[in-house]
Write a structure and sequence with these properties.
Elements (H helix, E strand, L loop, with lengths): L1 H11 L3 E3 L10 H11 L3 H19 L5 E2 L4 H4 L2 H17 L3 E8 L3 H11 L2 E4 L2 E4 L5 E4 L5 H14 L2 E7 L6 H4 L2 E2 L2 E2 H13 L3 E2 L2 E8 L4 H10 L3 E5 L23 E5 L1 H4 L15 H17 L3
Parallel strand pairs: 1-2, 1-13, 2-3, 3-6, 6-7, 7-11, 11-12, 12-13
Antiparallel strand pairs: 4-5, 8-9, 10-11
Helix pairs in contact: 2-3, 3-5, 3-12, 6-7
């Protein structure tokens, strides 16, 4: 699966993933009004508004980027209707030829991890039928429970040619409370990085492994070290834009071949029309603002690579 993502990155010349992390405050009023007129001010109405918002943005940007990353919590807050919109969004993005990274950050052990992996990446036998759940291509996972928690995900990835991004050094300010703690003189994130390499050794897909790592753009000084520790792990890099990460901060996430990382932007793209820079588009043309924000992001990142 990582080979497919790399192929899409090369085709678009865009090491960029757009986070489809919708919140109702991002959805323009005219979309909300239309959805509420049909479904009421209900969970169903909110889910419909989110769907129409997502679809309009995807229609404007799918030709520019290789991948999208829907964050499942933004859909779960609307209950079952929200999860239906998550599924609808995943399916629509796949129809558009996009690689879909399900940002689910699951972490458990044994049969529970297997169930998560099957639900989001794999297939399940029901009677004489074999069915798929959410059908994402990659998911994010939490390594806190160790190999017992990761192996079931890796097993499904190997069977289905799917991929993982393991949390290693995240972009949030308090990540250091645990991730930077020294163990035998080394920060915990380095030890996790070494495990990512180990977990990915039997899950290679060409030059890179299907087991990658989440590395925040907000800690650029660590990127070079982690790149050396994980030369064949692809990096999913959050923190660009709204969280303060800049294009220059990203350089060491990439390998000398110009590959090795894909950079995420969520509200910086999907809520671009709310920024002063793109205010000329207005709420009625929010999707066009998102397209321009994607073009600007690609140009910004490629300028430093």
């Amino acid at each position: 699966m990582i080979d497919r993502l790399i192929e899409k990155i090369k085709q678009t010349n865009a090491p960029v993933v757009v986070g489809l992390d919708p919140m109702m405050k991002f959805v323009p009023e005219h979309i909300q009004k239309k959805a509420f007129s049909e479904f009421g001010e209900t969970l169903e109405g909110a889910a419909e508004a989110i769907w129409q918002y997502n679809k309009a943005i995807v229609d404007k940007i799918y030709d520019l980027i290789p991948a999208v990353k829907p964050q499942i919590a933004m859909y779960e807050q609307f209950g079952i209707p929200g999860l239906q919109t998550f599924k609808r969004t995943v399916d629509y993005c796949r129809e558009k030829g996009l690689v879909v990274i399900g940002d689910i950050k699951r972490g458990d052990i044994g049969s529970t991890s297997t169930a998560y992996a099957i639900g989001h990446l794999g297939r399940i036998k029901i009677g004489s039928n074999v069915c798929s759940g959410f059908r994402t291509d990659f998911i994010t996972i939490n390594p806190y429970l160790g190999t017992d928690g990761i192996k079931p995900f890796v097993d499904v990835c190997r069977e289905e040619d799917k991929g993982l991004f393991v949390l290693v050094k995240t972009s949030n300010p308090s990540s250091g409370e645990f991730q930077d703690r020294l163990i035998d003189g080394r920060p915990l994130y380095e030890l996790v990085a070494e495990k990512v390499v180990e977990w990915g050794e039997d899950c290679m897909d060409g030059e890179y492994s299907n087991v990658g790592a989440v590395i925040g753009a907000t800690y650029p000084e660590l990127s070079a070290t982690l790149r050396k520790l994980m030369p064949r792990a692809y990096f999913l890099v959050p923190g660009y834009g709204a969280q303060g990460g800049t294009a220059k901060d990203l350089v060491h996430c990439f390998n000398e071949d110009g590959l090795g990382a894909i950079v995420n932007s969520s509200r910086g793209i999907i809520a671009a029309y709310k920024q002063e820079k793109y205010s000329k588009f207005g709420p009625e043309h929010f999707a066009e603002a998102s397209r321009q924000a994607v073009i600007d992001m690609i140009e910004d990142i490629n300028s430093v690579l």
